[in-house]
Amino acid sequence: MRRNILKAVACASLLALTGLAQAASVTLTPGSAQTTVLQDPAGSGRTVTLSLPGGGTSHFEFSNGTGTVGGLPADPMDVNGFVGVANVFNSKVTSQGASIVNEKSINDSTGTPGRVFISVDANIASAKFDNTTGLIASLSSNTSFTITNPSLKGLSSGGTTTFKNIKVDLASKTVYADLVMTYNVVNSATRVTTPTTSTLANVAVWNFDKVQGPATIPVAALVTGNTAQIKALGYEVLPNGHNGLDYSATIKVSNLRVTNAGLTALSQGFGANANPTGKMALASVNGETDGWGSIILTNRLSTTLPQCSF
Q1: In principle, which of 56, 57, 173, 253 could form an S-S bond with 300, CB 3.0–4.6 Å?
Q2: Given CA atoms 42, 47, 51, 55 in this order, what sign does their dihedral have?
Q3: DSSP string for 174-199
Q4: Whole-angstrom Cα distance, residue 147 to residue 198?
Q5: Contacting residues for 203 by C-beta, under 8 A, at least 6 apart
Q6: 110-169: pLDDT as tens digits
Q7: Dihedral sign, Cα of residue 35, residue 36, residue 40, residue 41
Q8: Which residue(s) pair with 104 in the sheet?
Q9: 6 — phi, psi (to 5°)?
């Protein structure tokens, strides 16, 4: 009996100390050994260890004029949004690393195929959040793809733009990315073309005004194991086989609008920096109903309860 009482006291003390030890903004990487301890906001001393398992995904879908995720125009001639502009530029979108580019084409009335859909799928690379309030600051992915544009008279001098390490910042409603642009600079006097490369880190490429889905980790409900409340907030709940539960939720950010910095960088990569018509075409995407498109993030969480056996 005395041994059990001592164990109970020791365990309770450990949980209290653990809960008090961490109260800050943390960044976790899926599938790693990184963890953080969540403490009951009510002050009960109960805690739960949180980690990010693998399996979180990012789905970047460019606008095509339909205004719906996965929507396809009835005819290639009806394509608008970024897909429509990419078709005008005759752009080619290719995946890099573990990302997967998906494109769909349909035939027009003459039987000629036309591209009507472009998306890029990847995995969540990290999540940054406050382990006290549960507020998710940002979700980053390993999304990486390249848009290649041929030289088109009056529109583009040719170039490429490679996107890497896309981060969706929910706090500022901004999408950041590392960019590598290659483009041709034409000397106005000699007409000699010089290939140029520009690398920019953490560029604020797009802003967004719509966020759907739970952008907060339910700290109190996770600590107390209130699965009904967790489900009501939009999370799917699954046993994880290691004395805890796994949770999955989808966050969608939409109506992406290119920033001034983003437009400047993309104009270079599209070879449109010295072509007013090409730059206007890129800027016009902001005027579409759904802007440049949307990003759908599946955020996965895993909890482990304290191991205190008597």
Answers
A1: 56
A2: negative
A3: EEEEEEEEEEEEE-TTT--EEEEEEE
A4: 15
A5: 176, 177, 178, 179, 261, 262, 265
A6: 888 999 999 999 999 999 999 999 999 999 999 999 999 999 988 998 999 999 999 999
A7: negative
A8: 117
A9: -65, -40
